[in-house]
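User: Sequence in, structure out. Go.
Assistant: Echoing your sequence, followed by the structure tokens.
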Amino acid sequence: MFRRQGLRVAAAACCAAAFLATPALAGSDGPGAPGVGDDYFPGYGNGGYDVSHYDVQVRYRPADDYLQGTTTIVAKPTQNLTAFNLDFALKVKSVLVNGQRAQFEHDGLELTVTPPRTLPQGSLATFVVEYDGVPSTVEAGGIKPWIRTADGALAIGQPEISSWWFPGNDHPRDKATFDIAVTVPDGTEVLANGVNTGKSSLAGQTTWQWRTTKPTATYLAFMAVGQYEISTKPGAFGQPFVTAYSDKLGEYEGAAKASIERTPEVVEFLSGLFGEYPFEAQGGVATSEGMSFALENQTRPTYSHLFFRRGANMSVVVHEIAHQWFGDSISVDTWRNIWLNEGFASYAEWLWSEAQGTGTAQQLFDHYYSSTPADDPFWQVKPGDPGAANVFHGAVYDRGAMTLHALRNVVGDAALLDITRTWVAEKRYQTGTIEEFIELAEQRSGKQLDEFFEAWLFTPGKPAVGAATGVPASATTASLVPPPAVAEIDAVHERVHDHD
């Protein structure tokens, strides 16, 4: 069966070129590459080693935004490694490799380390980096993602944030487990991923310890410091359900709690669709300043207060919890594949609406299809290859959701459910590409879908009505009155898009 042969040949050629350009082949002596070969963000990530664990220990002063840290990285060289890179933006004081001082050079986000001796392929290696700085003042690569607030900070961002508080291999291809310990003045709260494993105080300082035992992409590790009301109680399937609400939410507090407290209900609903929830804890954080977006930090999504300015907003909770499967458990192999994250998370909002009786997925599809004219620039962005500048464009979200519903119309409800559950099970804790998803969709549905995906993901312009595209005639005659869920969904995507 013909499957996008041209695209796959080009992708293979690109991979071959990247392989040949790597400074050292596996098994030979040489430095690791200063990037993983992501066309959209060439400098992100590094080659030559694989991280299994990060131990991040930082001391943070909210008064002047000063951060001091020691991060220990447990890794395995994938070649005989004479030098390697870490992605990092703050000032580095020292680097130890396997307990010995190593030479290093620092340029922007690239920290190049030369160990005293070659690290053998497959061996156990530890990198210990000591550092400090004022993250909010540091700009690298033209960006400053650190968010300083009146009472602390938010280390939250996508696709980059980790380099502003710990060094690492900053790309979703290299996931690891995390221990995060943050020391702050007494009376200040700290949130991070996973489960709280300890809290202790000494000499006016409190250390908060958090642990996540499932593979985590570096940008999904987060830290929120400030004044929060923190609660831990049983969540779905008996897991810890950790919530934190800023003390300064004011009029937004009620709506934020009315939404985020329903997280276990959403987890159970989505587990029924997608399969087992992939992590060890659940929760959510509501901030009161500094950010206008939401982000799917692993186990603990964080929400701007702006989502709740009109009242409770379940769509944003559904969106971020869906990301625990699509984006967190299954991450993008390169950032070109962002549709696999945002398309599914956005479509999950439609499925929730359908279950809640506030608009069926077909009604929502018809609304967005009919209300967006063919000459609207929205249709010119290709969700399957939006370009680095449009990674978080509205089309990736809304046209992305429309793609999945149109696929449902083409293959049927049962087949789409089977495709989705199989994808989630087979790619658990890994990365994926759109091409792999297309191949699976064809295998599980028994249908040839090249024309369909070409129209929806890779071709500028509004897909035409027809059986091949999954667009029914009803989509052109949708009611001028949108389903009730639309206002909430639009508010979600308006704020999510702002994050860029």
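User: And one key feature?
Assistant: Confidence is low (pLDDT under 50) at residues 1-27.
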